[in-house]
Amino acid sequence: MKRSSMLIASGLVPLAIGGIAVADVDFDFELLNSNGTEMTSYVLNAEGALDSIDFAIDFTNTGDFTWAGDVLFGFTDPNGNSVEFGGYNFSFGYAVGGDFPPDWDSSTSGTYGYSADLAAFGLSGGGDWIIEIANGYTTSVDTSWTGVLGMNGLAVPTPGVLALLGVAGLAGRRRRA
Questions:
Q1: Each residue of 118-143: pLDDT tens digit?
Q2: CA-angle at 135, arms to 134 and 138, nearest 5°
Q3: For FRET with 96, which of 4, 9, 111, 164 sits at 20 to 30 Å CA-CA?
């Protein structure tokens, strides 16, 4: 019993799960006070095949004709394959993965949610994924979108076994006087 407690305390038990990654990445984003076609990009180190996206978005309209569904997302896998979702009259030039449902055709500020199946586009790989977010309505003014993307099918790599051995070695060392 004492030995297993020492293994847990020293960090050796994680070796058994060192190669397992956390599945279905939640990714926070923001596009604040944007005008039409303004965009931001993020890089996410992940691996897997992008099956679907769960959009959980807070939309803030400052009074123009922009709709919640005018936000445009672009997803590029480590192999350079891309798909876009949403937008109105601006495009990244990628394959179109779909649009938000009709209830997103609203200029009312609030919280919006939707799940989109992107499995048919075959985005996959391990490495840097690029996520682009743009105000997809060219004449929009000072509109904001913030929220979380649930990127289903992707995982963030965990430290390798050698890294865990190094950490376990440091944890097991004693300071001698």
A1: 999 999 999 999 999 999 999 999 99
A2: 125
A3: 111
